[in-house]
Description:
Blueprint: E1 5-8, H1 13-18, H2 20-30, E2 34-38, H3 45-55, E3 58-63, H4 66-71, H5 73-83, E4 87-90, H6 104-120, E5 124-128, E6 136-137, E7 140-141, H7 142-149, E8 154-158, H8 159-164, H9 169-175, E9 182-185, E10 187-190, H10 196-202, E11 220-223, H11 232-241, E12 246-249, H12 260-271, E13 280-285, H13 289-299, E14 305-311, H14 315-325, E15 329-331, H15 334-340, E16 345-348, H16 355-364, E17 368-372, H17 379-392, E18 396-399, H18 406-416, E19 423-431, H19 444-447, H20 451-466, E20 472-480, E21 509-516, E22 521-527, E23 535-542, E24 546-548, E25 553-558, E26 561-566, H21 574-588, H22 596-615, E27 619-620
Parallel strand pairs: 1-2, 1-12, 2-3, 3-4, 4-5, 5-8, 8-9, 9-12, 13-14, 13-16, 14-15, 16-17, 17-18, 19-22
Antiparallel strand pairs: 6-7, 10-11, 19-23, 20-21, 20-27, 21-22, 23-24, 24-25, 25-26
Helix pairs in contact: 2-12, 3-5, 9-11, 13-21, 16-17, 17-22
Amino acid sequence: MKFPVALQLYSVRRELAKDTLGTLEAVKKMGYDGVELVYPFPVPAKEYAKMLSDTGLDAVSAHVALSDMLSDTDKIIGELKEVGCRYAAVPYLTEEDRPGKPGFGSVIESVAGLVSRFAGAGITLMYHNHDFEFVRVGGKYGLDILLDSVPGLCCELDTCWAKAAGVNPGKFLRRRLGRAPVVHLKDFVMQGHPNTSNVYKLIGIDGGGDAKADENGDAFAFRSVGHGCQDVEALLCAARQAKSEWIVVEQDEPTAGKTPLECAKESMEYLSTVNPQRRLRIGIVGAGNIANNAHLPAYAKIDNAHVVAVADICAERAEETARKYGIPAWYTSVEQMCEEAEIDAVDICTWNSGHAPVAIAAAKAGKDILCEKPMTTSVANAVKMAKAVKENGVGFMLAVPGRFGAANEYIRGLMERGELGDVYYGKTAYIRRRGTPFGWFTDLKHSGGGPVIDIGIHGIDAAWYLMGNPKPTRVSAQVNTQIGDYQTKGVGRWHGTPCPDNQFDVEDSGMGVIHFENGAMLVFEASWAINAPDGSSTLVCGSKAGATVSPLTVYGERDGYLSTDTITVQERDRFAEEISHFADKMMNGGEVRYPLEQAVQMQQILEAIYRSGKEGKEITIK
């Protein structure tokens, strides 16, 4: 997403007073999309409107003192409409009119009336904060009291003053979903808490004391965006989550020996590196094997997504993973992470039974979801997940790396171009002679099943994908526990994360047939323990040609003769490709390679396999 960016013209007020048109032209040349005006205007409104039109700058909003709004509301509205403002902001309240003070009651009444009158003219009224609105009155921030008292009033959050007051500006923005259409992006440096009397002297409010803004250790100094203490990427993430529409750059006074226009240019140059968004901000949930051995190493190989938070029910595991990978924040619940961290999406790497509750919590928090396979442990939970995703309008992709293998992509391309003809048969096997993991994998409550749901899904999905994902209709299968928790010597076993029960109540092998609506069928095998050779293979057959994944071979005809073509492709890190694809689609739009509907269908296939094995009959998928 790319935010349109405006410059608050207070930042270049002296230049504007000397040469209004020249200053506007310079601002446009820097790359700004619009400007935020300060009332009274430096020239008549009609003349100002022409200058803005000639330079191609959008008049986003204007700061107008409350006293001016109240003294001649119709005049103010008329001039704002003349220049094209869609927003207007009360820049601050005098001390006697703030929450908890005697004048606040009458201010609320006045502002409520203004909100209605401005709205009638198509202008949204906002309030622009400083740090004093974050003083608590009766346990609530003054700004919250103001916004709660006037439901139609929007917030123009000044991120500098919020942070200077010790408030997380991103968290505040997200709390005010839909009520912060314009965000003031302002950067600064600060040692401790500044002397507000001195600081406000810098912006023209006389609070007593001497104003200082030198570069040698002063408690507070403004900076160009991206050159101070603000995490700008995180603030933009919060603005996206809050459904904000415009970003406004403001620097009340120039610093670092630069002129106001030089500072404005420096801010825009920095913003061009992060706006539009180039990296998806990820919170990973589950700090076990799949996260540490696959997902997190993959993030290190891509440049369009990065992990900024990790959560795990085990605090020690979360902290250790954060330290190992340089992740700035760790948590013990997805809810806490979504509340505190500035993230766009959640990457779910928990044990299988954790997928549904984590995904539902993430969806309710407005986060896109990348979910490690399988989707969950039951169709009922899959339906709940899908409902949460749709109701909250978030993105979802099931993470099955086979769809990003070079050989799989090649065969899928053949199928889509019709070079395989009508694909009517598939066969897949993922066989371990001995290879049962320890830990939660063998506990039905946490895993949802054994090798079929763990490794069988890779083969089943690969074949299904290469067949074009026809709709599954019925399944006939067998699941076995003939070898179980073996004590075979000379073979290793992978240690998964232990769970509270640590049962062995899942199958050790499964096999069967899946039928599809188009008449195609798929034969599958999967085992952790079986008296058969190790190996994995996937074959699909069409009316024109067939193909195997490993080795990548195409079986067809050429010039009337049988042909067997072995293809060499360059394999890549499938996890890295998978995550990079997800990030690209979440930021830039388009359908993900493993969409929600197919994830639910795969869960239906898995559940039908287990039901068929348990009940000894064919299961129909509705």
